[in-house]
Amino acid sequence: MNSAKFSWVVLFLMGFTMLGQSQMITIRGFVFDKASQQPLPGVNVTVVGGDALLGTNTDENGNFELSGPLTGRKQFEFSYVGYQTQITDGIIITAQRIPFLEIGLEEGVLLEGVQIVADGNANAPINELATVSARSFSVEETERIAASVNDMGRMALSFPGVQQGGDDTENDIIIRGNSSVGMLWRLEGIDIPNPNHFARPGTSGGGITVFSSQLLSKSDFYTGGMPAEFGNAISGAFDVHFRKGNMLDRQHRVRIGLLGLDFATEGPLSKGKSSYLINYRYSTLGLLNKMGFHLVGERVSNDFQDLSFNLAFDGKKQGVKWTLFGIGGLSTEHYTPVELAEERDPGIANHWEDRVQGSNMACIGATYTQLFGDKSYLKGTVAVMSSYIFRQYDTLSLTDARFRYNTQDYNDSRISTSWSYRKEFTDQWMMKAGAIVHGVDYTFFKETAARASVSDITGENRDRNLDGEGLSMIGQVYALAQYAPVRGLDINAGWHALYLGINNNVALDPRLSMKYSFGTGHQLGLAIGKYSQTLPLAAYFYEEKTPGGSNVQPNFEAPFLRSDHYILSYTYVTKNLLKFNSEVYFQKLGNVPVLANDTEGYWMLNNQADFPEQEIVSEGKGENYGIDLDVEKFFSNNFYFLLTASFFDSDFILANKERYPSKFATRWVSGLTMGREFPFKNKSVLQVGGRVMYNGGFRYTPFDPVLSAAAGKYVPQAGAYWTSQVSPYFRIDARLSYRYSKKKWSGNISLDIQNVTSHKNQNRADYNATTNELRISHYAGGDFIPVLAFTFDF
Hints:
Immunoglobulin-like; Maltoporin, Chain A; five-stranded mixed sheet
C-alpha cells in the first residue's frame, strides 16, 4: 500500500471523537405462527441480558410494545407454550432507528412430556418448508460483514460452499461448483429479472444489487434442495423480503461515502395503520479513481442509481394486509482506449477499444395477504417488470477512426402474478399449492463484425447473431403436502411444473424432503428433488445463415436444463449459541448445451454470462459432489464468527462421453468471518471485523501453440479442456466502524477495506496473438480498495 492510499485510512481513524448517551426507547412488533401466519396472543417478550429484566406480552392481535433503555445492540427472547422459544440475533437500536420486529414462532418438540425449547438458531430459514441448504440473513449482516458494501451477493461469499464468480468487481456467486447462470432471484413472492447494476446477458450477477439494505427485512438464501414452490433454477436462490416502514414516527437516514449518496425515509401514512419506506441511491466511482483506487480499471468510469420503496397497509377487514413495492436501477459503464495511439499495444485488444455497456431494470408490484380463521391463508403478488441490457463496442485505428464491431440489445418486459394457498388440516397434515405466471414481451438483437486490425478498419461484413421479438409465457405450478407423524419430524412431498411458451417445453419435477429435530438442538435434514430451468431466453434465438442464404434459429427447440439434488445435513446448536453444521451433497446435471462435433470443449455451464452462439445439442452432463462444513457463533457477548470449509469436485461430460473438470472445480472453498464490538460507557460502540477467503483457483484450457499461431487466435488444446488451474485465491477484508448516538440524531462512521494486503489473485488465461502465448491475468478490482462512509439517522 503506498503512502497516498495509507493517508486516507489515517484520516478515517482521526474521526473517532464523538460521544453518545442512553435514552428510553419503545420497541414494537408482531408475533405470529410461522406456519399458519396467524397472530399469537400472550407471547412472552423479554430482553436478553442487561441490568434489569424488561418484558411484556403480545395482545390478542399478536402485537406488543416494550419500553426501556434499549439503545445499542439488543437481543430479544420470544416464548410461548407449545412453541419453540426464539432468541433474535443482536439488533442495533438508536432513538432515530427503531425497528419493527416481525417474529414467526415454530411449534415446539415434545419428548416424554418435556418441551424442548430454543435451539438458538438465529439464522434458521424463514420458510418452514426449507429443510437443508438454507439460512436466513438480516440487513444487519449485510452491513457488518467486511467489504460486503451492503450487497447481499458479496455477503454470501462468507457462507459455506459459496465463492466469487468473476472479477472482484462482480457479485456473481458460484454455489457448489454450479455456474451463476443457475441462480434465482425472488422478491415478495415473485421471480424477478437479474436485479443487479451492470448486469450481463445470461447471468444472475453484476456489479452490485439494486436492493438497498435500508429496505431489507429478514430474507432467505438457498444453496440447493429448494422446496417445491421454487422452480426455474438449478443452483440456488435469494428469496428477498422488504420490511415495513415505521407506522408511528418518521425516521430518516443519509449515507455519504466514497461510493456515493444514499437517502432513506420512512414513517406513517395513516398512523398505526399504514406506512411508507423509500430509498434513493446515487453512486459513482469517480471519487475513488481520483484518489488512486481503481475498482474496475484506470480507464473505466461508471455510474449507477436506484430507487426502492415499500408501502404497507392493514386492510379494513380483519386478517387482510397488502403492500405496494418497487425497485428500479440505472447503470452505465464506459471503457476508454489508451489515449495516445503510439502507446497502444497491438496485442492487447482493450488498448484500442471504446466500449459502453450497462443495464436498466425495474419492478413494481402489489402483494395481498388474507388470513382465514381455519389456519389457512391466501397470498398473492401482481407485478410489472422490465430488464434492458445493452452493449456498444467500437475499436479504433491508428488514426482513431472508429469501427463498431459489437452491438447488443436485450429487452425483457413482463406482467407477472404469483398466488399461493396454504391450509393446515390437523396438527399432522398441511398442504400448500400455488402458481407463478409471467407474460413476456421480448426483443433480443446482437450484431457483430470481425474485429478490425489496427491498420485496416474498412470491413463492413456484419453477422446478425441474434434476432428475436415476440410475446410468450413462462408458467409454473406447484403443490405439496407436509406430514408430521410424530413431534419433531416433518416430511414434505410435492412437485413443481415448468412451462415455456416459446417452444412449448414442459417439465414436471418431484421433490421430497424431511426434517427431524431431536434432543436439544440436534437436527437432521434430507432433500431429494429434480429441478428444471429455461436457458437464458435470448439463447433460443441464436441465428445463422444456411448455405442457401436464409436465416435459421437452430437452438429454438432446446430443452430445459436439468439437475437432480441429493442432500443430507446434520445441525447442532449449543445452549451458548454455537452452531455446528455439515452437509453432504450430490448433484447430477443434464440437458446442458454442448456442440455436436466439438473441437473446443464447449459446455454452457462453464460460462458465467452470455449463451451459446453456435448450433447446440443438449447432450451435455455434469456432476457436483462434496461436503460443506461450518461452525458459527451467533452475535452474543459482543462477538461473532463464522468458519467454513467446503471440499468438492465438479465435472462435465461432453456429447462424446469424455469427462473433464469444470471451470469451477476449484476443489475447496474456505473462509473465516468474524467481528468484535467494544461498547463504551457513553453508549457509543467501536466495531472491528474481518474476513479471510482462501479458495482453490479457477481452471482454464491450455492452448495449442501451433494451431493458434496459424489461426492468429486462441485454439484450445484438444482433450485438455479446463485441466490447467490458476493459483489459489486469497483475500483479507477488514471493517472498522464507530457508532454513536445523540439526543436528536445518531451516526456511524465506517471503513471497509477490500483486499487489505493487495494480494494479486490470478483469474484466467488470456491469449496474446502477437507473442503467441497465454498470459495469466489478475482479478479486476483486486487491489487495496477502501470504502469510507458516514451515516446519519435523524
